[in-house]
Amino acid sequence: MILCITEKPSVGTDIARILGAGVRRDGYFEGNGYCVTWTLGHLCTLKEPADYTPCWKTWSLAYLPMIPPRFGIKLKDDERVVRQFRVIESLIPQAQEIINCGDAGQEGELIQRWVMQKAGCSIPVKRLWISSLTDEAIREGFLHLRPEEDLRPLYEAGLCRAIGDWMLGMNATRLFTLKYSPRTNGQRSGVLSVGRVQTPTLALVVKRTLEIENFVPKDYWELKTLYRGVLFSAQGKTYDSEEKGLKTVESLKDLPFTIDASTKKKGSEAPPRLFDLTSLQSECNKKYGISVEDSLKTIQSLYEKKVSTYPRVDTTYLTDDIYPKCGPILLGLSDYASLVEPLKGHALRKSKKVFDNSKVTDHHAIIPTGQPLPSNLTSNERKVFDLIAKRFIAAFYPDYTFEQTVVTGKAGKVKFKATGRVPVDQGWKAVYAREAAEAPQEEPDSGTEGKEADSGSQEMPVFTPGESGPHQPQLNKKTTQPPKPYTEGTLLKAMETAGSQVEDEDLRDALKANGIGRPSTRAEIINILYKRNYIEKTRKSLRATKAGIDLINTIKVDVLKSPELTGIWENRLRMIERGDYSPREFIDQLKTMVTQITADVISDTTAHTIS
Q1: To the nearest 10°, the Cα dihedral for 144, 147, 150, 153?
Q2: Model's pTM, two decimal places?
Q3: Strand 2-6 versus strand 97-101 pairing type
Q4: Do you find a cis peptide bond into 153, omega within 30 degrees of 0?
Q5: Which residues pair with 477 in a beta bridge?
Q6: Rounded to whole angstroms, what are the CA distances from 90 to 76, 100, 101, 599?
Q7: Helix (H, G, I), strand (E, B) or coil at 2
Q8: What does the alpha-carbon distance between residue 237 and residue 234 come to, in Å, rounded to a whole number?
Q9: Which among 91, 139, 235, 479 is most buried, taking Cβ atoms within 10 Å?
Q10: Annotated catalytic, 310?
Q11: Which residues are CB-contacts of 136 (< 8 A; sequence separation ≥ 6)?
């Protein structure tokens, strides 16, 4: 008998059907030489401190740091979990071979291996590795099963992540709580939760919150002039007082405005990148206000309903072998037939910004599978699928092209400039034409008149170098603005780039290696910060609470709250995943760091409790 172990009952049901294991038993299917069972997600977890020694049940500085000589796992204390584990445990000795059918990612690998390890499995194991749950993908995956050993570095990275989080979280939480949490009637008033990923994430929100709270707005004035219905901006001319600006306006108003040059050049804009998990969650939050927790559940549900590919990915690229499948996928998007129609009869575009084998490790970007949409999609599922489908369709459209006009002129010695952009070919923007037309228009700045070509959307009249005429110089009052508060979507992107504010897609890719956390866990981290009452949300805006600010101010150990340093750890975990870094070295470094942090905090003579 061949035993297949999936991560969820729904996936087990699909695989059993495809393999012909049609007899339903308690906790598994059997038939045609196969048994198919499942793990219900995390059945096992790392042991708690008290599981290693009774001393660690007591919270005491004297017992820190807690570093077990060897980490162990245990079953979760849940009746349903224990019952399903007994099913798996009883089936393993009957099998000649096991096929690990867990989700194809680091977390899935850890979940499955821990269960097999706990069950004492010594039977040969192969790995099913697929990027979608369509019948075709499952059948193809079973034809190309991978040796378990190929995925060992992935498991080791997951194990190091879990052990690192345990060591830092367990020790730092007890350490800072015992040292700094105030006492009321001899009892600690609360736990100060510290974590390898949650604390630097909180530090990002605290920093932004304080920047906003401490921001002092300043007025300034910009010099502009209206000539032939176009608003020109003075180059490098801003004033810190209205009086200074008005003197310049007065000196220019009777002088002619002269055009120095007018140039036109063609430009283009490539389609937006396909989605990875972070960018898709961010777009869901920005466009529809869907929380990162709900968007993750929705994206996962679309995968399990077979209409989109594996979601927990950090790449925006596809591999070359996907290219021949893209035509059938597009044709399968029947709800988007009008958008796919212009692509018919032509060879599909194959851009290096979409297809690049070197940018894909285990899974490619999130795309549709081309399967018919089921009738039971929720409202959020339809919205999220719409984002995925349109982004995929747009990738095969031509570039958006435009003509850029730059006009320079002067009045007296003051130089001015105006720019305008005229669309030539909508290209991929045609995919979004309807929603762009329906989007609310932003209110123009008060005090401006005419067509300010810096908006880039309106055509300007023809200007001839050397022409001159009357103009209307004016001052526009502006006020410096504080940084924008994080939303869940922008915080996700900040975590991805270790706090760097990056819009450029290529630079964002380069910074991903040192991001905080993994795509699949970032939503959970934000949720933990809510539950700990360290951050709060007003409409879409996030801010740190007093408890969150106090905690970050209390932590003097930079390594615990630095996004950059935490990003370095993440990079090492990715290197372990690729087989380029030693798991033992990673754990040993963490042990040394936790020991040093403990010694430094215990010896802190400037200690003060959080009020």
Answers
A1: 120
A2: 0.87
A3: parallel
A4: no
A5: 221
A6: 18, 16, 18, 47
A7: strand
A8: 5
A9: 91
A10: yes
A11: none
